[in-house]
Amino acid sequence: MDGGTDTKEIYENVMNILEDLTSNAHKLQEQVLEEILKSNAGTEYLSRFFPNGQADKQSFKTNVPIITYEDIKPYIDRIANGDTPSILLAYRITQFIQSSGTSGGQPKLIPMTAESFEKRMYEPLLPDLVIKRCFNGSDEGKSLYLYFIKPEMETPSGLVASLYTTFYFKTKSFKTGLAKFCTSPIETILCSDNKQSMFCQLLTGLLQRDEVVRMGSSFASVLPRSIKFLDDYWKELCSNIRTGYLSDWITDAGCRNAMSLILTRPNPEMADLIQQICEDKSWEGIIKKLWPKIKYITSICTGSMSQYIPLLEFYGGGIPLVSPNYSSSEACFGINLKPLSKPFDVSYTFLPNTAYFEFLPVNKDGGGKAQDTRTIDKPVDLVNVKLGQYYEVVVTTLTGLYRYRIGDVLKVTGFYNKSPQFQFVERQNVVLSIDLDKTTEEDLSKAIMKAKIVLEPLGIMLTTYSSYADTSLMPGRYVLFWELKMKGRKDLPKLDAEIMEQCCCIVEESFDFTYKSLRKGGIISGLELRVVKHGTFDQLMDYYVSKGASITQYKPPSCLKSKEAVKILNSGMAGKFFSSKTMF
Questions:
Q1: Do 447 and 423 share a structural domain?
Q2: Which of 75, 393, 417, 468 is the most exposed place for a label (fewest CB within 10 A)?
């Protein structure tokens, strides 16, 4: 991709492929399912649903149940413990992908074959080319992509389990492909010490600041974390640049060797410039100031990651935010063909050749809450979804997932040829529950987004949030944790009790009829809002990372289930406020 002509030709070829895929969505979906059934119908799991040996689409839809991970987990556990993979799929399993979701507190294990892994390695290329087409000159510079790994674990069968990204970063395809355009040497990405990795990646990014034309991470949560790290360590980073000497606490051999090839001489002029930028009381637009040639920031900003959009817009200073694709450990679903869309308006075009997709209709009542109608309505195929309707996605793959509920609720926003385009709406899960009330992630997010509007005229930003149901007292109540900061400063804003109580009331007023009825009847106490100090949620992330979570795929929990996690947030509490008991 050295020349503009070559890039244009590659882009045109890619778009021709996409045109072919999306124009033949129905045919490709039929072929995908046919291949899956032809290969795997004889497995222990599937064969029991085809007693007559008739493994066609009709019998598949009639006999094979729609499942969750808990239904398939006993088979995966058997394989992980040494049983033959043929109980679930015909192909040889080469590794397990650890999902960022959990089952019983443990990461989900998703089987992966050599063939499926090879196909997925090309996933980043499609959205990358589409994005570069929209930003002139973005293929000529370097990428400050903040990537991290998580140590692999070996199952009793000898099969290794790790995050998909960890496997991918170790492949020749990544090392000779995307990594060549990154500011971070591969050794810094593969460093298992996240702190040393972060320091070195930011240092190399600063040293090459005039070459950086794009910035990104797998998930949006990583970028504010990186800016917070930069805030904590910019003086030391400047010292390294000024002296040309790497800090002694960087002990990882790979990092030190890689940095010795980049940090080759003192550069006091660059250090002084970076220091001047970082000494500014306001870090609004700090990314643009430190990396003036950046054209866009790429990261998944939809779903639970949308809470970081205002913060990234603040730090970005007008740099476009691009959410490139919709993917999970289980499968690749679609890509964003309109990178210039506003983050909250992003739709993903489904790729019909990656898996077999079905969609469970989901109604939306007047309050916006998803209502479960799956026992009434049958799932529909990819090409039969209706514009404006809501669905929960169900996936069937060659790697042993059959009619598997992902848990995501999507809204059909349009079509690209015959392939539908979806907007991510919510995870189909309840995050808060007391008595008969069940508040979903979407309900909570919408309520908080309404309440934070009160703070914006005061220059106060909500940087992140979480919640939990406190049932230690009777009646129980919902508790929110908010981390706030001033737009022009890094310190905690002065908290006006009247304003904060107003936020509590707005959140409660945004909840549904069931909550309001229980609240009025005294079954649920008034909502409590606890404001925590800047950096408290970083401590929460450190806790989850220490328990095995990946910094790359970390998703802040909308609702806390761990007593230790609640304790961490409580330790940073700067103030607490309650909703008026007479609001109803």
A1: no
A2: 417
